[in-house]
Write a structure and sequence with these properties.
The chain contains five helices and four strands. It is an alpha+beta fold. It has one domain: Alpha-Beta Plaits (2-Layer Sandwich), CATH 3.30.70.100.
C-alpha cells in the first residue's frame, strides 16, 4: 500500500510558484526525495490558476510518511510556506492493491 498526498498551494502574486522554486533551489526537495520510503515529490503548475501549484507527494507506507513528518525539514517547509503566505488544500490517496480493472485499462494508452 502506497500513500500519495496531493497539496494545492495557493497564494497571491505567483507566491506558490516562488515557494516551489525555493524548495527546489534550497535543496529541500532533493533531501525529501532521498528520504527512505519516498516514491516521488514533484510540483506542477496549474494551467487554470497561475496562483496555484500542485504537489504530488508519494510514500511507500504510513511509517515512511510519519518519519518524514517528524523530520527537521518540516519546520523549513512550514517557514517557507509562511514566508510566501500560502494556503493549502490537501487530499490523501491510498493505492488500490488490485490496480486498474480491465475496463479502466481500455482508456489507458501506454
Amino acid at each position: 500500500m502506497s500513500i500519495t498526498v496531493t497539496i494545492f498551494y495557493t497564494g497571491k502574486d505567483n507566491n506558490a510558484e516562488k515557494f516551489a522554486k525555493e524548495m527546489i533551489k534550497s535543496g529541500i526537495v532533493q533531501k525529501i526525495k532521498n528520504e527512505e520510503g519516498n516514491l516521488g515529490y514533484n510540483y506542477y503548475i496549474s494551467l487554470e490558476d497561475p496562483n496555484t501549484i500542485l504537489l504530488l507527494d508519494s510514500w511507500k507506507d504510513q511509517k515512511a510518511l510519519d518519519a518524514h513528518h517528524a523530520s527537521p525539514m518540516m519546520e523549513d517547509i512550514m517557514n517557507l510556506r509562511n514566508k510566501y503566505d500560502l494556503s493549502m488544500k490537501a487530499e490523501r490517496y491510498i493505492t488500490d492493491e488490485e490496480g486498474f480493472s480491465d475496463n479502466d485499462k481500455k482508456f489507458i494508452k501506454n
